[in-house]
Amino acid sequence: MMSKASVDFKTVKEMLMQDEEFVQEYEKLKPRYEVIAQIIAIRNEMNMTQEQLAVRMNTKKSNISRLERGTYNPSLDYLVKVAKSLGKEVHIELRDVECPKIDSKEALTAS
C-alpha cells in the first residue's frame, strides 16, 4: 500500500507568500475568508450542522456549503441573516490602511 506524501498548509502558504501576485490576491480575499472562518467556528462551537443552520435560515444546505467553501460571494443582508441565525450580530469596521496619494487633477475628475 502506498502512502500519500503530505505537506502542511503553513509550509505551502509560506511558499506562496513569496509571490507578490499571490500576496495581492490573498490580501484582497482576506476579509471574505475571515468572515467564513468565523461562521464555521461559531457553527462548530454550537455543534450545529450546515443542515441545521440552513433550516434556521430557511435556505438550502447547499447554500451554506457554498458560503463556507468560499464559492459564494454573500451580500451584507445574507451575512446579517447568517449571524442572526447563529445568535450573533455583524459589525463592520473600516481600518486605516496605506493609501496611494491622489493628485489634485485626479481628485477633481473623480467628483
Label the structural class.
mainly alpha
Strand content: under 5%
- Biggest beta-sheet profile: none
Give the distance, in angstroms, between the N- and C-terminal Cα atoms: 67 Å
Tags for this model:
111 residues; mainly alpha; 434 Repressor (Amino-terminal Domain)
What does this protein structure show overall?
The chain has 111 residues and is mostly helical. The chain has one domain (11-94): lambda repressor-like DNA-binding domains (434 Repressor (Amino-terminal Domain), Orthogonal Bundle), CATH 1.10.260. Helices cover 61% and strands 0% of the residues. The chain has six helices and no strands. It has helices at 9-16, 20-45, 50-57, 61-69, 76-85, 104-110. α3 (50-57) packs across α4. The longest helix has 26 residues, at 20-45. The model has no long low-confidence stretch (mean pLDDT 88).
Structure, briefly:
With 111 residues, the chain is mainly α. It has six helices and no strands.
